[in-house]
Amino acid sequence: MSKIGYIFGPVPSRRLGYSLGIDAIPFKTCTLNCIYCQLGRTAQTTLLRKEYVKAKKIVKEVKIALSSGKTIDYLTFSGSGEPTLNSKIGEMIREIKEFTSIPVAVITNGTLLALKEVREDLRFADLVIPSLDAANQKTFEKINRPFPSLRIEEIIRGMIEFRKIFSGKLYLEIMLVREVNDSPPELHLLKEAVEKINPDKVQLNTPVRPPAESWIRRVEREQLEKIKELLGEKAEIIAEFKRKETRAYLKNIEEEIYALLLRRPVTRQEISATLGLHINEIVKYLEILEKEGKIKAEEYAGEKYFQGKE
């Protein structure tokens, strides 16, 4: 089923089982430019909501995917940009739920929950997972590098209001970066915000794949355990320090990517276009090849290029 387009997977997910990804936004179209993003930097952040990808096309592809008979535990709006920027996301969720009982999840950076119309769009989902990496403006700007007009207090207020109207499950993800948002003052502010939002779960994460900025460092497991204890019984650690499942990926695809990188340096987007695989899947194979020492990554003119080693 994996192919370049609006639908990818289903892929195994620790949180969602077998998740069929729905990508309703062009690559790196986002409200944020997070320092830890595994897809690289956002060239230009935006708050413009519009029908970036036609809702009819996405719904049609979902129907085709469901007809394959593959195991699917969740239909997940995620992908390579901020899904709530698609102004038709609410319409898509409602229409999909008319022809399948498979639950719909939305993985979002949470910034647009400050808007009433976005809260109304997402209330029809079964599971919503917004992110909250900081509870003060200075740290928010450092770690998430938002569109200039975004204010973290308004975003938190939007999450609180969404919790009031949402009858589904709400998980809050916190991405922790060493010496950026893991200090006691930062964590206590996050704890206060979490208590006001009142999610069903708090999922702690830290970068385990090559991030947008090479200088960032992950928070080690021992520290994550302490943060989990601070945030209370709803908190859990989802960071994967040992990726045992990587050998489950198809060896022939790994070899195809390696052969391509031996010929010339290419970006993630170019690999995706050449091999017909979604960029989120490309990231996983590149991680394997980097760990095996078969490829190297270099930046040029703001783009990350990958090249094979002989």
Query: What class would the helix/strand composition place it in?
Result: alpha/beta
Quaternary structure type: single chain
- What's the CATH class label of the largest domain? Alpha Beta
Helix and strand succession? EEHEHEHEHHEHEHEHHHEE
Examine the secondary-structure arrangement and name the CATH architecture of the largest domain: Alpha-Beta Barrel
Biggest pleated-sheet summary: 8 strands, mixed
Per DSSP, the total helix count is 10
What would you say this structure looks like, in words?
It is a single chain. By secondary structure, the chain is an alpha/beta fold. The chain has two domains: 7-241, TIM Barrel (Alpha-Beta Barrel), CATH 3.20.20.70; 247-308, Arc Repressor Mutant, subunit A (Orthogonal Bundle), CATH 1.10.10.10. The chain contains ten helices and ten strands. It has helices spanning 55-66, 89-99, 116-122, 137-144, 152-165, 184-197, 221-231, 251-263, 268-275, 279-291, and strands at 7-13, 17-22, 74-77, 104-108, 127-130, 169-175, 201-205, 235-237, 295-300, 303-308. The strands form two sheets. An eight-stranded mixed β-sheet has the order 1-2-3-4-5-6-7-8. Strands 9-10 form a two-stranded antiparallel sheet. Helix 1 (55-66) packs parallel to helix 2. The protein is globular.
SSE layout and pairings?
Elements: E1 7-13, E2 17-22, H1 55-66, E3 74-77, H2 89-99, E4 104-108, H3 116-122, E5 127-130, H4 137-144, H5 152-165, E6 169-175, H6 184-197, E7 201-205, H7 221-231, E8 235-237, H8 251-263, H9 268-275, H10 279-291, E9 295-300, E10 303-308
Parallel strand pairs: 2-3, 3-4, 4-5, 5-6, 6-7, 7-8
Antiparallel strand pairs: 1-2, 9-10
Helix pairs in contact: 1-2, 2-3, 8-10
